[in-house]
Amino acid sequence: MEVFPVLALGFFLGMRHATDSDHVVAVTTIVTREKSVRSASLVGALWGAGHCAAILVVGGAIVLFGVVMPPRVGLSFELAAALMLVLLGIYNLAQARRPLHPPAVVERNRPIESLPAIAPRRVGGLRPLLLGTVHGLAGSAAVALFVLTTIQPPIWGLVYLVLFGVGTLAGMMLITSAMALPLAVAARRAASLSSYIGVVAGLFSLAFGLFLTYHVGFVDGLFRADLHLSPG
Fold it and tell me: 91: helix, coil or strand?
């Protein structure tokens, strides 16, 4: 087997992995509060960094040391990712009515021109980083098992995991940047539209998170004594 084409495939599969529905829903819910391509790209980068770190730590342990992740542990990570979507949706709904920037306070007898510029809202780096880490934990076992059955020796498997993580990071940055552009245009034309977009994203994240919670808990059987993993 030619290892280098497989390693290159890892990068592009990582980019493809970034488009998974739960990943897109998670970052979309966050990016609706970001109104510049730069801040949205940072969200994607932080999400990808957390995801990549989880893949390397857990997947690397599986590939290099043969660590076995019990099915219930893997499903528990998936449940955690689903619950984070629920919480993220609730947070977005709670924040939807709040302004993106605090109103300026004009001091008496002080010309407006002399007032300092209002700093742009800082990106909440913890949320995308934590989300990426949890989603990485949820998918690390499947990625690592694919490597074990495809790539030998293990050191090349570790390189594959690195390239897979970098591809996921690059893909998520592209996705968040593409999302931010129409949102920025919409915000300039109608400021109230940003709140509506936040509400829609929050509702969708909440609904999708509840759906995934049900699927992991009852279809895959995490909440049942007889564990049954559905295909895919």
Answer: helix
CA separation (Å) from 183 to 27, 34, 38, 186?
A: 14, 8, 13, 5
What is the Cα 67 distance to its own chain's centre?
25
- The pTM of this model reads 0.83
**Helix, strand, coil percentages, rounded to 5, for the chain:** 75, 0, 25
At position 80, the amino acid (one-letter code) is: A
DSSP per residue, 141-169: HHHHHHHHHH--SHHHHHHHHHHHHHHHH
Instruction: Give the CA radius of gyration of the chain.
Output: 21
- How many angstroms from the chain centroid is the CA of residue 175? 11
Q: pLDDT tens, 64-77? A: 888 888 889 999 99
